[in-house]
């Protein structure tokens, strides 16, 4: 089997186990077993579990970026487009609920991993975001949206979209929500997230 296919199988196995068992619980032995490779072969492709985690995080970042690029219209930003972007990010988090818990665990137990990732990817992210930063600045200058920086807008969207998935497991256990009520709860939070971001961008009357 080609090297790229074997690496992909290991990363897919790691993604499943990280979401299910967390960073600490997903040992390299379990990942190797899930991927159908020997422990030695896993370490041939990936030096450490940390290396695997960072590659999985790359998959998340490229996934959400691909989703966003599909709706971005060149040289045009308005509230409608940003509402769509908020929906895309919320849906991405909904699809990857287990990964939200994983990131919270890593942020608490291994913050160095996230710091290193942000540092290493800073140049790439800066390049990827630069065009969108310019478009937000232009939309502000032309009066299409209220005064806001791209960084603040990005953080606002990430915050309002991620919080429901951080607290949803706690609320589910406390209130005994079944799957239908959980779906309704998240759908309501999605609408709220979109309206909060829209209100953040509208000019005061």
Q: Structural class of the helix and strand makeup?
A: mainly alpha
Mean pLDDT: 86
Global shape: globular
Question: Could you tell me how far the N terminus lies from the C terminus, measured between alpha carbons in angstroms?
Answer: 63 Å
The number of helical segments is: 9
Largest beta-sheet characterization: none
Question: Helical residue percent?
Answer: over 70%
| Assembly form of the protein | single chain
Question: What is this entry, summarized?
Answer:
With 205 residues, the protein is mainly alpha-helical.
How would you characterize the overall build of this protein?
- It is a single chain.
- With 205 residues, this protein is an all-alpha fold.
- It has nine helices and no strands.
- The chain has helices at 3-25, 28-35, 39-45, 49-69, 79-95, 97-109, 111-141, 150-175, 179-201.
- Helix 1 (3-25) packs across helix 4 (49-69) and helix 5 (79-95) runs antiparallel to helix 9 (179-201).
- The longest helix is centred in the middle third of the chain and has 31 residues, at 111-141.
């Amino acid at each position: 089997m080609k090297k790229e296919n074997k690496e992909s199988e290991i990363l897919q196995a790691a993604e499943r186990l990280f979401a299910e068992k967390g960073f600490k619980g997903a040992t390299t032995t379990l990942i190797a077993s899930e991927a159908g490779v020997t422990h030695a072969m896993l370490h041939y492709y990936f030096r450490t579990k940390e290396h695997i985690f960072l590659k999985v995080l790359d998959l998340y970042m490229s996934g959400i970026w691909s989703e966003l690029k599909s709706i971005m219209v060149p040289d045009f930003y308005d509230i409608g487009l940003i509402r769509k972007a908020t929906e895309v990010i919320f849906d991405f988090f909904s699809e990857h609920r287990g990964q939200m818990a994983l990131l919270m665990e890593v942020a608490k137990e291994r913050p160095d991993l996230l710091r290193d990732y942000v540092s290493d990817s800073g140049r790439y992210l800066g390049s990827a975001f630069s065009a969108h930063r310019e478009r937000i600045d232009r939309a502000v200058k032309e009066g299409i949206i209220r005064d806001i920086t791209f960084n603040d807008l990005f953080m606002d969207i990430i915050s309002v979209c991620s919080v429901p998935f951080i607290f949803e497991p706690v609320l589910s256990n406390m209130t005994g929500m079944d799957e239908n009520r959980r779906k309704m709860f998240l759908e309501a939070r999605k609408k709220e997230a979109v309206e909060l971001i829209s209100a953040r961008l509208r000019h005061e009357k």
